[in-house]
Amino acid sequence: SSGINAEYGGKVGSDIEEGKCSWLVVECLRKLNSKSYCIENNEECEKDETKVCEHNKENKNKFVDNIGQPEKEKIVKVKEVMEKCNLESDYKTWIQTKLEQLNKRNYMEGYEFVVNLLKEFVDKIKNKEK
Which residues contact 38 (CB under 8 A, 6 or more apart)? Predict the structure, then answer.
């Protein structure tokens, strides 16, 4: 069982096998295409910002070849890549940043209702993490 919580990407058990373009998928591919990031945390790879490292290319191929496939072993491979990319932590950071942005805007005249509604939504998402 993967450490990736299904609640972070949408409906339980459907996004990966259906190949949906969720936040997790976009963020995973963004990281795997980065020239300054290595999925294996290899310092030599991260120093060479002229190309995407081989570790990322291999994992991107594994990800792309298996996403959107209903077979359990393919779903497991996708989740393995997502877990290596540390997406759950990235998601929590992203949500926290968005919540802080909402808090800063909370006192803007005329937006209180919308901001409070969005805060309620974020709180519901955060409660799913527990």
Answer: 45, 46, 53, 55, 56
How far, in Å, CA of 43 to CA of 52, rounded?
13
Q: Taking the model in full, what pTM does it have? A: 0.69
Token output for 63: 């990800």
Contact 5, 23 (CB under 8 A): no
89's tokens: 């932590």
What is the tens place of the pLDDT at every residue in 58-110? 999 999 999 999 999 999 999 999 999 999 889 889 888 888 877 776 555 56
% of the chain exceeding 70 in pLDDT = 82
- Residue whose entry in the numeric block shows the structure tokens 């795997």: 32
